[in-house]
Amino acid sequence: MGNHHDHLFQSTFSAPRHAAGWLRSVLPKELVAVLDWRTLVSLQDAVVDRRLRVHRLDLAFAIRVRGCRLRVGLCPEHKSYRDPRVRRQIERYVRHLSEDVRVADDSPIGWIPILLWHAPTPFPGGRQLLRLLEVPPQAIAALLRWLPGLGLPVDDLSRVTEEALRRRVMTALAKLVLLCLRFLRTYSARQALAAVHRWGDLIRAVDNGTGGRAAIERLCSYFLRTTEVTPARLLRAFETVLRRRECSIMSTAQKLLAKGEARGEARGEARGEARGEARGTAKGKALGRAELLLRLLRARFGVVPARIKTRVEQASAADIDRWAIAVLEAGSIAEVFGRRART
Predict the structure, then answer these.
(1) Closest CA to 34 of 5, 12, 14, 63
(2) Angle of the 280-301 helix axis to the 248-275 helix axis, nearest 10
(3) 153: closest CA among 13, 6, 7, 30?
């Protein structure tokens, strides 16, 4: 199951216009030169194996070789944590693509894996060779020089500076996503808010581009999930940068609350079924909301007193909803729990 790092990566780089610049920055320059980047297309839909079974690929592209009709496949992989199995996973995936997957009648002659690595520690082993691809002898000479025994192209973000990422020739959204993946996980709330202002030019460019509002909402969600910054402070920072009122941050916070409720509901249903309790679903909803409210309280005010924690865990869903809204504006924990529900 994917996490919020995966979601941000895939939702951005599944679009060829955002993926192209990133792929060009990672692949060997000689290989980049023999590919026709105007022909880059996504292969996430409608792939069929030799047994006529339909597959959906995580992230895959096809691109033509300059001056001919041959196509090669590019399959990016993403790792947000240190995983010793990453090479074997990539090998299996590329072998599956090479042996089983056919894309209409225009199948790629081979597949090139690319790894985006933003685990807390550097990628182990550098660009070691992976002999994954079997290219037919009739392939053009320029391509033959690069496909057999191609070193695994790794974009190791742990080794890249902010200035270097900004210098890459990519779309504003691609740059901003890589900056978020590279730095936000290590930032305090204060540093995250400073980053919003420092990256303001990119945020405005994303907002003014195609699908800008949806992209801003995804970025807000990533900020809220990855850092301890509060929704209210993040809202003010984005409003300052965008020079307009920004509603997606609060709507994102509400969606996170709803997801917490859904997770709690699922747990509550399971517990209720196991214990024969008809009240399992209602308890699950309250549990999910309570967990998220406590997280919001810790992010906004620091340590939550034990009596407050107990009060939240024993509260009704309606009380938790009221307190969650109050967190966005209150100046202290006491103010959150002293408020009356607004009408």
Answers:
(1) 63
(2) 140
(3) 30
The secondary structure element, H or E, covering residue 113 is strand 111-117
Phi/psi of residue 243, nearest 5 degrees: 60, 40
Q: What are phi and psi of 252, to 5 degrees?
A: -65, -40
Q: Are 62 and 16 in contact (CB under 8 A)?
A: no
| Pair of tokens at residue 306 | 């034990």
Distance CA 84, CA 90 (A): 12
Q: What phi and psi values does residue 334 have, to the nearest 5 degrees?
A: -60, -35
Torsion sign, CA atoms 88, 127, 148, 38: positive
Helical spans, DSSP H, in 199-230: 200-208, 212-226
Considering just the CA atoms, what is the radius of gyration of the chain in Å?
A: 24
Buried b (16+ CB within 10 A) or exposed e, 251-265: ebbeebbeebbebbb
**Is residue 191 packed enough to be buried (19+ CB in 10 Å), middle (13-18) or exposed (0-12)?**
middle
Burial of 230 (0-12, 13-18, 19+ CB in 10 A): buried
125: left (phi over 0), alpha (psi -120 to 50) or beta: left
Q: Which two tokens stand for residue 108?
A: 């790629």
- Give tens-digit pLDDT for 194-235: 999 999 999 999 999 989 888 998 898 899 888 888 887 888
DSSP codes of every residue in 121-142: SPPTTSS-B-------TTS-HH
Q: Are 89 and 126 in contact (CB under 8 A)?
A: no
- What are 39's two structure tokens? 């022909």
Nearest of 106, 116, 1 to residue 43 by alpha carbon: 106
Other CB atoms within a 10 A radius of the CB of residue 210 amount to: 11
Residues 184 and 190: their CA atoms lie apart, in Å, by 11
Task: Give the pLDDT confidence of 33-69 residue by residue, as tens digits.
Answer: 888 999 999 886 545 445 545 445 568 898 988 877 7
How many helices and strands (H and E) does the chain possess?
Answer: 16, 8
Dist. CA 72–CA 12, nearest whole Å: 22
CB 176 within 8 A of CB 198: no
